Amino acid sequence: MNRIPSLIALAVLLAAPAAAEMKTLNGAGATFPYPIYSKWFDEYHKVKPELQINYQSIGSGGGIRQVTERTVDFGATDGPMTSQQQFKVDGKIMHIPTVLGAVVPAYNLKGIEDLKLSGPVIADIFLGKVTRWTDPAIAKLNPGAALPDAAITVVHRSDGSGTTYCFVDYLSKVSPEWKSKVGLATAVKWPVGLGGKGNEGVAGLVKQTPNAIGYVELIYAKQNDIAYASVLNKAGKFVKASIDSVTAAAAGVKMPKDFKVSITDADGEASYPISTFTWLLVYEKNAGDKGPVLKDFLKWMLKDGQPMASALGYAPLPGSVNAMVTKAIEVVK
Amino acid sequence: MTVAVLDRARKVPGSRERAGDRLFRLVIAGFAGIILLAAIALAWQLLRESAETWKTFGLAFLWTSDWDPVADVFGALPFLYGTAVSSLLALLIAVPLGVGAAVFLTELAPKRLAEVLMFAIELLAAVPSVILGLMGIFLLVPAMRAMGAPYGVGMLTAGLILAFMILPYITTITREVLLTVPRPLKEAMYALGATRWEVVRGVSLPYSRAGIVGAVFLSLGRALGETMAVTMVIGNNPQIKASLLEPGYSMAAVIANELAEAASDAHLSALVAIGLALMAVTVVVNGAARLMLYRLGARR
Prior knowledge:
The complex is a heterodimer of chains A (333) and B (300). Chain A has two domains: 3-99 and 278-331, Periplasmic binding protein-like II (D-Maltodextrin-Binding Protein, domain 2); 102-250, Periplasmic binding protein-like II (D-Maltodextrin-Binding Protein, domain 2, 3-Layer(aba) Sandwich), CATH 3.40.190. Helix content of chain A is 40%, strand content 19%. Chain A contains 13 helices and eleven strands. In chain A, the strands form two sheets. An eight-stranded mixed β-sheet of chain A has the order 2-1-3-11-4-8-6-7. In chain A, strands 5-9-10 form a three-stranded mixed β-sheet. Chain A is elongated. Chain B folds into two domains: 2-49; 62-299, MetI-like (MetI-like fold). Chain B has helices spanning 2-10, 19-49, 51-57, 77-108, 111-125, 129-146, 155-179, 183-191, 196-207, 209-225, 228-233, 251-258, 265-299, and strands at residues 67-68, 73-74. In chain B, strand 1 and strand 2 form a beta hairpin. In chain B, helix 12 (251-258) packs antiparallel against helix 13. The longest helix of chain B is centred in the last third of the chain and has 35 residues, at 265-299. Chain B is globular, with a radius of gyration of 24 Å. Chains A and B meet through helix 3, strand 7 and helix 9 of A and strand 1, helix 6 and helix 12 of B.
């Protein structure tokens, strides 16, 4: 009988070192990069079996909130934090760009393979000023196309989203009226249209409704074979979203030191104008030994993780940005 | 009778309550107390989290209709309107259908057929709402558009989906109460030469009135709070339009849609305020139901 307690003590002694080595990092935030993040965390777990990284894709807004309340070890967002939001965080928070994505205008027009649109026209459609497909503004961009003489049904996201942020960020840049009337946020007051929940909700409505236009993530449009328009970029070229044209947009922007940069409406002939970085939110000073662990992961992500991005439809960071980030994460403690 | 006997048993002079009984009573009372506490804590938490909204907009929050997360200006009227109208539409459609079906099942249908039908109806009640929403998107929305609705999604579509959802409740409960109508009453009517219709109208329905009202309010509660199926077909546009074919929005839907990405405190607070309003609406509906049942009971 007496032996049982000592056996338990022995078991505890044996298990203790193993338990101490097992580490976990918890993160939460953006849904848009979730597929690549979960791939990375999975692969990294194979490299470092003693580290488990958990990620909850609760949305960028939720990620920012949890980082502010310090209930997670890192966050993730598709739209950079405002300085007001950063001010509320106890300690310094860093934006680490990870990959790039794009938002495409998806449409449902019978017999039209390659619709061409410009920023101001997209803004006017979503403002409810251009209401028919035969509007001269659209016809001018698509000479010879058999546009239907029908009303445009506008579809937007009903849930707050980083996709919406990127899209309205672009519209705010190209249309002063959009900027003053609607503005920029993850959820806005839409002047017209139907709301669909998530990319799948918007895509579903666009696919079902003849003569509809909406916006979805590039990856989503590609995976589901949804027709999407080319967009006129700043250099005056019509560009269709692709991994190359998104990377080109990132290369066409001067990167600030805090990495909080919008790359919509970027310079460069090959740049796709509705592109965005997505960021991890990392504390500069971390509790315990979590800093070095996180730093090791970030280093791995920048070196071995980046090549995995394009297979999942994300554009990897351009070389120059990668070098900048690699240097910047040295301060993480 | 039984209650009186029990009461007397408890008050037998000189008999003391045994310790075990007392402990049992305390524990059970505690269980009941937890329910009450949870309800109060819920209301308190909602009120606390939405304090900012009430401070900024006051009660006008409930009757202004601007919802602009960019400018941090919030008004809940379009959502209140959408929830009320879609739920009332659902009742308007489902109550006559459900009560009619229940009458058929109890009074007219052959027993075997009634059993099969009841099984099917109970099955319907178990369908998850997201499945109904999908059905709405893939079947009802194109059908509405084919019939001339401009978008297919909209207030009427949401009302139809909700009607479909509450129909099994109304039918099942109404059937159960109709089955409790005493046979002698009905037989007396038949003996007087009444037709089936006259028996249903004169005896069955009046006798089960309280139960049917209960079924209606239970369904209304379900319709008011339904989230997934509604947000999938209502169009999610916070506007108040006279046409039922136009898109609208509901309280539960806007919370589900915007909560995850509500980055500003004002936005979050406004969403919680809508939650509190939704809770208040359901409390009022349930209170009204109780009052009505009480009055009906008193009259009889």
